[in-house]
Amino acid sequence: MSSVFTRIIEGELPGRFVWADEQCVGFLSIQPLAQGHVLVVPRQEVDAWVDLPVALAQHLMTVSRSIGRAVDAAFQPKRVGLMIQGFEVPHTHLHVWPTNSIEEFDFANVDQDPDPAVMEESARRIREALRAQGHQAEVPQQD
């Protein structure tokens, strides 16, 4: 059975994409730690990040860095957080989000019901910042 992330990647479930290439995608978390919280997900379903092929792991980190720079430009936080925890979905994913304190790394504080208009605006700001960096990754059409 496909993971929820594969279903998003394949368009079976909606997603607010900010990045897409042949190896991975980036889309907003539906339960963000902060507005601008992006999940970087390989297209290949690999449960544990330590089991990723090395080249794919390197690519995910490179993409996460590009998205992190875009998040930094779009939201101007004190830091951009990066975390790989992956207990909730058995499909490797990297969390990238704007943060201003260590307390904002606590997943108990996610927004369970984010405003769709604010989410759409966050995705637009990140895509715009990526374009300003010269990234032209294809982004799937939004529903």
TrEMBL record:
The active site lies at H93 (tele-amp-histidine intermediate)
- Which residue ranges does the record assign to the HIT domain? 4-107
Q: Which InterPro entries match?
A: Histidine_triad_HIT, HIT-like, HIT-like_sf
UniProt GO molecular function: catalytic activity
Q: Where is the signal peptide?
A: none
Sorted alphabetically, which Pfam families does this protein's record hold? HIT
Give the motif span (Histidine triad motif). Answer: 91-95
SUPFAM superfamilies documented for this protein: HIT-like
Give the GO terms filed under biological process for this record: nucleotide metabolic process
Which Gene3D superfamilies does this entry report, sorted A to Z?
Answer: HIT-like
Q: Which PANTHER family match?
A: ADENOSINE 5'-MONOPHOSPHORAMIDASE HNT1, HIT FAMILY PROTEIN 1
Q: What is this protein called?
A: HIT family protein
